[in-house]
Amino acid sequence: MAHADFPLHRPELLESLCRGDMLLDQAMSSDRRRFRRGDEIIQTGVASDTVFRLVSGWVARSRVLQDGRRSIIMMFLPRDLFGVKTFLLTEQPDSIECLADAVVLAIKHDQLRQLFETEPSVALRIAFQLGEDERRMHNYIIGLGRASAEERIATMLIETHGRLVKAGICANGSYSLPLTQQDIGDLVGLTVVHVNRVLRRLNADGLVSFTRGMVQISDIAALYKKAEPILDAYERAQPEFGGGDSAPSHPS
Amino acid sequence: MAHADFPLHRPELLESLCRGDMLLDQAMSSDRRRFRRGDEIIQTGVASDTVFRLVSGWVARSRVLQDGRRSIIMMFLPRDLFGVKTFLLTEQPDSIECLADAVVLAIKHDQLRQLFETEPSVALRIAFQLGEDERRMHNYIIGLGRASAEERIATMLIETHGRLVKAGICANGSYSLPLTQQDIGDLVGLTVVHVNRVLRRLNADGLVSFTRGMVQISDIAALYKKAEPILDAYERAQPEFGGGDSAPSHPS
DNA sequence: CGTCGGCTTGAGGGAAATCAAACGATGTGG
DNA sequence: CCACATCGTTTGATTTCCCTCAAGCCGACG
Lengths: 252, 252
Hints:
By secondary structure, chain A is of the alpha+beta class. The first copy, chain A, has helices at residues 14-28, 109-118, 120-146, 149-166, 181-188, 192-204, 220-227, 233-236; strands spanning 32-35, 40-42, 50-64, 70-76, 81-82, 95-108, 174-176, 208-211, 214-217.
């Protein structure tokens, strides 16, 4: 794994971070599990003693209210750790749900605790994950609280793109996003109907096409412009417009 | 400080948690600072090497977008730690702002790191803070994404009440909330005008009165009922209706 | 071939935003 | 002490963004 996977954060920690990442991978490699769309990896209200790492597929933290309203709190992408919160909370307020067939690695709490007591770099890797999750959540809160439907969807598409590029999964502005429009609505706080209309409009305007779980960003500059007010400094610093094929350049 | 301050989380950690809390207090007690409404304790885009603990007053994490839209990401209440994220991120995406005159304790990164390398209980206390922040943010995301204006405001009032009761600052359903209605709007993702209307309606219906920075919950059961769908299991488990004056009873 | 889940589109309604203005407190300077 | 400015609250009128309801469509699958 390249150093570039953890960009822009306190550079003096980078080496340790990568080491922790690797050690964690090793320690988890023996417990590999598969899930299918719809599976609950961690259930609401049930205690869990396991921490996971996504290898491939799509997994999200979500909650369904009594009256059926559903909310996707955050998406996990390959290489992300999830379920770390189970360390502190006995009862999980929300569930971790599989949105598209996924492969994950798993490790038990006690084993993990042992590991990071002897290996500070593993603790750092976990702290880094928590920090990233937190940063992203701050952005979601701002988006949900203050952004229009169009801004939310544009932001979601740009943010996902950026994360996938970092993870080395996406190249030329096109990526697989195997969510239903309902899922997207639950993620950005809109109804399916409205998600569809916005998506359709973006498509008509030649910015993005989204069909059959595939996103194709045609005009990333224009899409980026819509998302920009909602992005934070870290997301602005790295829009590798189109991925590895051309030299990344900083906007603004 | 009582054990009851960290309720409901993995009980086997409680003792260590309290110890960490106390040690942290000791270590920070030498650097005490004051801020006034409007001060920026941590500025957007500026590196910080300090972690804070709120003693009294009101402090929030907030961000202002280029076009002036403002968003309050989360509120800190007395005893909370904040600025922990500066450990990992060099550049702060948002600012920590003082909303009502506050007293805080401060500690430098290197000193804190030293402390929790020798004292695991301090690391635990910090992890606990991060976990609590995260849990609360999940709830905000759900509220912002899926709740009506009334639900958001009711939830905010109930949540704040619950936290203040836990901190021992609030007794009989009445507490000081020295925010402007604009602040509240930025916190729950509404405009001032609409916040005012909802507040007014809740008041007319005899649920809450909010005047001059004082909240008086008159009908906590009814208010709770409005907030309930948005609360998580932890917040539901501890509505000490009205505090010490009457026997606390569980709703529903 | 029929059913089902997800997408698409239209029509209409409603919750919250926007625009606008008045009001009340608080503070400040003449 | 009063005139005046400022800041926050309150209320009304109007607009708009998004939701709700409803129905048709398409592709996947048994």
